[in-house]
Design brief:
The complex is a heterodimer of chains A (about 425) and B (about 300).
Chain A: H1 2-26, E1 31-38, H2 41-57, E2 61-68, H3 70-82, E3 89-92, H4 97-102, E4 106-107, H5 110-114, H6 125-128, E5 132-133, E6 136-137, E7 140-141, E8 144-145, E9 147-152, H7 153-159, H8 170-184, H9 196-204, H10 223-238, H11 245-252, E10 268-272, H12 276-283, E11 289-292, E12 308-309, E13 312-316, H13 322-334, H14 336-342, H15 352-359, H16 364-378, H17 391-408, H18 414-430
Parallel strand pairs in A: 1-2, 1-3
Antiparallel strand pairs in A: 3-13, 4-13, 5-6, 7-13, 8-12, 9-10, 9-11
Chain B: H1 2-39, H2 56-63, H3 66-97, H4 104-118, H5 121-130, H6 136-143, H7 159-169, H8 172-184, H9 187-195, H10 200-228, H11 232-237, H12 251-261, H13 265-293
Helix pairs in contact in B: 1-13, 3-7, 3-8, 3-10, 4-8, 8-10, 10-13, 12-13
The chains are: A alpha+beta (about 425), B mainly alpha (about 300).
């Protein structure tokens, strides 16, 4: 009796393992494909629907998928890569693509473009160039994206201030923001004005960049350009024109839904253009938003904007089904039905046929962002090189803790903060030499 | 002896019974720990294979990383403040609930509840709302006409205190252990002392406290270890960046950030090794000091 019970327990414990192991083998008649992406709930819902449609259209394919938020995504995929368990298709970012390619974790897509699995006949080369490393394509762009300032048209009208010209400068920005604040009693500008993206584009509108082309050093010599900018923002924070760092941490900077523009507490707000859809649905009906370029250093100088591939699909080097993965990427890029589901949430589609095909179905917010991307396409600075190895180290361990926080809490001056940032970033970048 | 005859068979049975745990222990605890010991001496970045770098991680940690020392400071502050306050509070509540009045069981369950839900993400998220600029806490301050415009989570002076308050509020597990300890104290001690004329205060200091010291020792060690490895609170409440000004950048959080967000697994492993040694040292110190203040009944 005792033995019988023991056997039963052992079987109960082991059975699921055995059953599982066997089950996979039995189902292997189907082609397997695994996919992983990061994003918001909105993106998860749309992407899952897209995958279900793919399986409907291709009944012989069994797609498994995983998703996560931005930070968890990289923790997850890095761990997967270390264990040799990367999914076949992974979403990639412009900032990380080079690093992953350098470590031989990605498969080049060119063979699948040559044999027609991935069809790029409706795509201009500049739309995919960002995924190219040493002449080979390692990620296919899923949408065009650019930074923008979103203006609350109603607030501007109420204050009697005309919308700024596309080539507005930071000086104009400051006086408009202060005027909005004085007249309306709300923030002239929302939070997030001291993030690292501004460090990069201040120098972009000076014909430079935060990093040099090789990623071995900072790309600028004049610290005062960014120090002056930082000082302007800190002063505006102190005067209540922009939410200060305390409120950014505790209130506004948590998600798109907590932004001041949603609750009509700020008249302008800084975003990436593909976030307009999420902003509009959070802000509700009856709001009027206009997207415009980031301000630049001088009105006739280079734009502070560049067109960025919002994200890529890449094929992992650990895949056993690269052809199936390529087929899925093609489906995502060229299938009209699936793009109606995806609704340009990852940015403006790269295929002109898809853009034309879905434009009628888009809401005002998406049409505004399509139009904005068209305007940026006419007036931009060239796409800078991908962020170098060590970029996340610089952001996590230098930019935020040594520049941003001490400056905003008045421990050091903007000049000292920018100097520290430059010196410490140089140290990390020097390792890439 | 009968037992001896069956011992091999029975020990196989025994191992089979603990097999699920054993697999978990080896796979999730022991092997990763040994790997950490090795990786701490490498530059492992999770994507390329680790290269041995000797003591470089440790030298960098101690001489060239200001954030490291900020995290040490935040962690020590957190542990040294929250642990004693939490223990005193737990003892206080345990004393309150150590009686046989009607409904005591209900209150015991009630006061333990925060600890059941306490380590969960949901509570940490709720905490962030309570101490938000328009949160419950500021609303209460406004009601009683106190200044209510402090941004608790954004102010370097106060942010860590919201986290201390959170763990003090989760006093349930030390409270339960204190309660069990209180029940162990023979009632005749109290009876005879009150015949001798000792009041409740004197009884507390002369009987309850000395008799509880072994329990205190146990709780202190356990809570110290929890305090040194605090993670969830700052990961959720202050957004996992240690903000503001690295005042809530706990050691475990910084370790996680280095290892998994900056992909410096080697450096993170080295930090884990130092943490292990530090916790062992502190625990050792507490045990070494225990003969001076712990009273065992058998002595």
């Amino acid at each position: 009796m005792k033995k019988a019970i023991l056997l039963l327990i052992v079987l109960t414990v082991l059975f699921p393992l055995v059953a599982n192991g066997g089950g996979d083998k039995a189902a292997s008649a189907k082609e397997e494909l695994s996919i992983i992406w990061w994003g918001s709930q909105n993106r998860h819902d749309r992407t899952i629907k897209a995958i279900e449609l793919y399986m409907e259209k291709n009944p012989n394919v069994e797609v498994t998928y995983e998703f996560a938020g931005w930070t968890d995504y990289w923790t997850k995929t890095t761990t997967m890569a270390a264990g040799g368990m990367l999914p076949d298709v992974m979403q990639q970012d412009y900032a990380r693509l080079a690093e992953w390619q350098e470590k031989n974790l990605l498969t080049a897509l060119d063979p699948y473009i040559k044999d027609g699995t991935i069809d790029l006949s409706n795509v201009v080369d500049s739309a995919i160039a960002g995924g190219r490393i040493n002449g080979e394509l390692y990620g296919l762009n899923l949408g065009m994206n650019s930074e923008c300032f979103v203006l609350d048209v109603d607030a501007f009208e109420k204050a009697g201030i005309p919308l700024p010209p596309q080539n507005w400068t930071w000086d104009q920005f400051e006086s408009i923001a202060r005027e909005l604040h004085d007249k309306l009693g709300i923030y002239g500008m929302g939070d997030g004005m001291l993030g690292e993206q501004h460090w990069k584009t201040i120098y972009l509108s000076n014909g430079e960049y935060a990093y040099n082309d090789a990623g071995t050093d900072v790309g600028y010599t004049d610290e005062s350009l960014f120090a002056d900018y930082s000082e302007m923002i800190v002063n505006m924070q102190n005067d209540g024109v922009i939410p200060n760092r305390e409120l950014e941490l505790a209130k506004y900077g948590i998600s798109i839904e907590t932004k001041g523009m949603v609750s009509k507490e700020s008249a302008m707000e800084y975003f990436w253009s593909n976030q307009l859809t999420a902003l509009t649905s959070a802000a509700g009906e009856g709001r009027h938003f206009y997207m415009t370029h980031k301000p630049r250093l001088t009105a006739d100088g280079p734009a502070a904007n560049y067109l960025k591939p919002s994200m890529f699909f890449s094929i992992s080097a650990q895949t056993e089904n690269a052809a199936g993965a390529a087929k899925f990427i093609n489906y995502f890029t060229n299938d009209l039905d699936v793009n109606k589901i995806l609704a340009a949430e990852r940015g403006v589609p790269i295929s002109s046929a898809i853009r034309a095909g879905i434009k009628d179905l888009m809401g005002p917010a998406q049409i505004e962002s399509f139009n904005y991307i068209d305007r940026v396409a006419q007036d931009n600075s060239p796409l800078p090189n991908p962020d170098p190895v060590g970029h996340s180290d610089i952001v996590n361990n230098v930019y935020n803790p040594m520049y941003l926080d001490p400056m905003c809490y008045g421990v050091i001056t903007p000049q000292e903060a920018v100097h520290t940032l430059t010196v410490e970033a140089k140290k990390i970048l020097a390792k890439n030499k | 002896m009968k037992i001896k005859k069956h011992s091999t068979r029975e020990s196989i049975d025994g191992y089979l019974f603990i097999l699920p745990w054993l697999i978990g222990f080896l796979g999730l605890n022991l092997i990763p720990m040994v790997a950490t010991l090795y990786l701490g001496f490498t530059d492992f970045d999770m994507l390329s294979s680790p290269e041995f770098t000797g003591l470089a991680n440790f030298i960098r940690m101690f001489t060239d990383d200001v954030r490291y020392w900020a995290s040490v400071k935040a962690t020590l502050y957190f542990a040294f403040v929250s642990v004693p306050v939490r223990l005193v509070f737990a003892l206080f509540v345990a004393m309150m609930l150590h009686n046989n009045r009607r409904g005591t069981h209900f209150y015991r369950a009630l006061y333990y509840a925060p600890s059941v839900v306490g380590s969960s993400v949901a509570v940490a998220v709720m905490w962030r709302e309570i101490f938000g600029p328009n949160g419950l806490f500021n609303a209460i301050l406004a009601k009683v006409h106190l200044p209510a415009d402090t941004v608790w989570l954004g102010d370097p002076r106060f942010a860590i205190w919201t986290l201390i308050l959170l763990v003090v509020w989760q006093f349930g597990s030390p409270m339960l252990i204190f309660l069990a300890g209180l029940k162990q104290i023979p009632t005749d001690l109290y009876e005879s002392s009150s015949i001798d004329g000792a009041g409740p205060v004197r009884q507390f200091f002369k009987i309850t406290l000395p008799m509880l010291t072994p329990i205190f020792l146990f709780n202190l060690v356990m809570q110290m270890i929890t305090g040194f490895t605090a993670f969830t609170q700052s990961f959720i409440v202050t957004n996992g960046k240690g903000t503001p000004l690295d005042t809530t950048n706990f050691y475990a959080l910084y370790l996680y950030s280095r290892a998994f967000e900056s992909f410096q697994m080697g450096y993170g492993s080295a930090m884990a090794i130092v943490l292990l040694i530090a916790v062992a040292l502190f625990t050792g110190l507490i045990f070494k000091s225990s003969p001076m203040w712990v009273h065992y009944e058998s002595e």
